[in-house]
Amino acid sequence: MFSCGASHDEDYPRAAFGAGLFGHNFNVTNNCGRCLKVASILGRREVKVRIVHERNDHGLELDLHSFNRLDVDGGADVEGQLTVRYRFESC
């Protein structure tokens, strides 16, 4: 994981993305620093995060606080994975 150039502020938790998550034509420069609304499939919980890092795969990595907030039943803590919905939103 490496910085994509966005600065982190305390208003939004951090997220790292894999460019493949958004499709083959995802432009890192244009999307770094944008916010995502991420919602748990299992519950009605959601968080807004700012993309500040890039990954070399197709995943979305949330900071621990955001991950735990979305882990409704505690099962993802063992697996380290959640199934989520996401969309870009203004910060």
From TrEMBL:
UniProt-recorded Gene Ontology molecular function terms: RNA nuclease activity
Keywords carried by this UniProt record: Disulfide bond
Barwin domain: residues covered: 32-91
GO biological process terms held by the UniProt record: defense response to bacterium; defense response to fungus
PROSITE patterns: BARWIN_3
Name this polypeptide is given: Barwin domain-containing protein
Organism: Linum tenue
